[in-house]
Amino acid sequence: MISRRGALIAGGTGVAVVAGGAGAYKVATGDKPEPPSPPSVNADGKLLWRNWSGIQNAYPAARLAPKDEGELALALKTAQGPIRPVGAGHSFTALAPTTGTLVSLDAMAGVVGWEGDAAIVRTGTRLGALGPMLAEKGRALPNLPDINKQSLGGALGTATHGTGTKIPALHGDVTGLRLVTPSGQVIDADADNNPEVFQAARVSLGSLGVISQVRIKTSANRRLRRRVWLEPFDEALANAEVRWAQHRNFEFYAVPFTGLAANISHDETDEPALARGPDQDTEFLEALKGLRNLLGFATPVRKAAAKALLSTAKPETAVDEGWKLLSTERPVRFNEMEFHLPVENQLKALEEVVRTIEKERPDVFFPIEARRIAADDAWLSPFQGGTRGSVAVHAYYRDDFSFLYSLVEPIFRRYEGRPHWGKLHTLRGQQLAALYPRWNDFLAVRQELDPEGRMLNPYLKGLFGLT
User: Fold this and answer.
1) Ramachandran region of residue 307, left (φ > 0), alpha (ψ -120 to 50) or beta?
2) How many domains does the chain have?
3) What pLDDT is stored for residue 6 in this prediction?
4) How confident is the model at residue 407 (pLDDT cuts 50, 70, 90)?
5) Residue 368 within any structural domain of the chain
6) Which ranges carry the FAD-binding PCMH-type domain (predicted)?
7) 167 with 264, same domain?
C-alpha cells in the first residue's frame, strides 16, 4: 500500500532482512534520546506552553479563552502584553511564545451563518472539524492543507495552503473578516469596506489583533479520486509540470537516499466511494529511519537496499469526499522549513536540495514535499503576485535540524523563495521587504492598529525589523 506522506509501505521486517536479521535491526535502530523538555512549571508558578514539535515554549503570565467577541474585545483591551493568539501550535517559528498573555479561540468555533455559498466561520474552528460542518450543507472548502489540526485563524495568519495550480491558499478564499484590535475595537473589512485592513489582515501573523470570524468561499462537496504511486525521481521531475496542469490537486515527494519519488493526485469523480484505508506513514518512516541507521554510512548501498525493499509497492486508490482525503494524520513529529518559489525555479531548487542533502546529511530520511499554489493579492501572502511552487524539507524531531539553515535555506534564497510564515527561516526586516511589494504598507496598517506594539513578541519585532 502507498501512504499519504511516504507514499508506500515498507515494514520493519523488510529492513531487518537488509541488515541480516531482526536482531540486527533492533540493535541498529536504537533511537536518539528524546530532546530535553523544559519544566512544566517555572519558578513563578506559570505553566509551560510548548508547540507541536517541541522547539518553541513559553510561560505566559495569563491564558485567556474568551467565549464570544465581547469577551475577546475586553480581553485584548485589558490584557498584559505581549498578547499572542494561539491555535494548535503547529507553527515552528516563535509566533506564539509570550511572557504576557496567550489567547486561545477554542471556545469561539463553528459555522455561524451563510451568505449564499460563503460560510461565516469563527476562527477558533479546527480545520478537521470544519469539513463535516460544511458537508452538512453539501459544501466544502475548495482545498485543505496537508495537516488539518490547525485552527482556521492560525492557518489564515500563516498563509497555510494545500496544492493545486488553480486553487489558492485558504486566505485566498476569504472575502470578508472581522478584526478585534488591541484597543478592543471591532473592524469589519472586505474588498470594499476598510480594504487596506482587509488586505493586511488576511495574512498577518496575529500582529494586528485577533480575527474573530471570516466569510469564506465554499465549493460543492464533491467526491475526489485519490491516486498515489511510486516512480524514479527523475521521471517525477520530468512529468511534474504536466501533472500539475492535468490534475485538480497534485504534489510529489522526493524520498532522499532512494532515487524514488511518490506522486499524489486528486480529481473530481462520480465513482462510488472506495475506502482509503488506514494511513501507513508511521511504518514507512520507521522503515526509512531503519535504512538510515543501518546503511547511512554508504549511500549507494542504502539506495540499492531501498529500491529492492520498495520495488513491489503497489499504487493506492481511494474515492471519497474531498475533506476526508486531502489531509492526513501525522503522528511522527518533525521540524520543517518550506519556501515558496517562482514556478520556473521550483524544480531546479528541489533537485539541488536533494543533491545537497544526499551529499552532506546522511541522517535525513523524511521525504521532501513539492506543491503548487495559485496566486492571490493579500499583502503578506507568499503567493502575492503570481503562482508559486513550494518545497518543504523536514527533520525528525529528535534529529539536529541546523542543516535547514546552513544548507537548505541558502538554496531557497538563491532561487528567490519566500518563506512559509509558520516554518523555519532566518529572514528579517529589509530581507523580507525586498520580497513583498506591499511590506511597508502592511507595517503602516499594523502601526495604526497597534501603535503600542502590544501584539508583538520579540520574534515579531525582529521579523518586522523593529528592533
Assistant:
1) alpha
2) 3
3) 38
4) very high
5) yes
6) 56-221
7) no
What is the pTM (predicted TM-score) of this model? 0.93
Q: Is the pLDDT of residue 14 over 80?
A: no
Dihedral, CA of residue 240, residue 241, residue 245 and residue 246, to nearest 10: -40
| Cell numbers standing for residue 403 | 542543516
The amino acid sitting at 363 is D
Confidence of residue 22 (pLDDT cuts 50, 70, 90): very low
Specify whether 166 is located in the same domain as 19: no
What are the CA-CA distances from residue 420 to residues 28, 258, 391, 414 (Å)? 36, 27, 10, 16
One domain for residues 303 and 371: yes
Looking at residue 15, its pLDDT comes to 36
Residue 358 maps to which CATH number? 3.30.70.2520
Confidence category of residue 104, pLDDT binned at 50, 70, 90: very high
What pLDDT score does 287 carry?
87
Give the integer Cα–Cα distance in Å for 434 and 46. 40
Q: Which three cell numbers stand for residue 398?
A: 529528535
* Cα distances (Å, whole numbers) of residue 432 to 60, 429, 435, 462, 463: 29, 6, 5, 11, 8
Residue 324 counted as domain residue: yes
Cα distances (Å, whole numbers) of residue 243 to 169, 247, 265, 276: 19, 6, 8, 22
Choose the final residue of a domain: 396, 419, 442.
419
Give the H or E element holding residue 104.
strand 101-104
Cell of 208: 494586528
Do 177 and 229 sit in the same domain of this protein? no
What ranges in 96-150 are assigned the alpha helix state H?
Answer: 127-135
